[in-house]
Amino acid sequence: MSTQTGEQLGALLAETSRVWRHRLDVRLRPLGLSQTRWILILQLSKAEGGLAQSELATRLGISQASLSAQIERMVRDGWVERHASAGDRRCKTINLTEQARSLSRSIRQTAATLRDELLEGLAEDDIAACEQVLKHILQRAQSL
């Protein structure tokens, strides 16, 4: 690979991710959700039976202390519940409330609409190729 090929890839990935999240954040603000909250709700909605607080912090890329404060606020606001883990009483499992599960459907629909708008005009083969490239880069980064 030449020194110029791929030189801008990391910056483009980061900027695309930032702008995409910002556009979704703007569309979700009327629901009363900060970016941290809607991302947390989406992560928990993908997990059957909730997630350990430590796993959730890892998935969100934030410290457990930062997550703990956010979880406290979300428990107070009725979005999530904390439960002691059956296997380890010291470990807390975070689960969505019914209110948040219902909201996760709205978040997913809004995200799907935005995704469709952003990918408009691209051929399905190009999108599939891009996904393959990104999966490869992710796997390589995780293995280093």
TrEMBL record:
SUPFAM superfamilies: Winged helix' DNA-binding domain. Keywords: DNA-binding, Transcription, Transcription regulation. Residues 6-139 form the HTH marR-type domain. One of its GO terms (molecular function) is DNA binding. InterPro entries: HTH_MarR-typ, Tscrpt_reg_MarR-type_CS, WH-like_DNA-bd_sf, WH_DNA-bd_sf. SMART domains: HTH_MARR. Signal peptide: none annotated. This is HTH marR-type domain-containing protein. It comes from Acidihalobacter ferrooxydans.
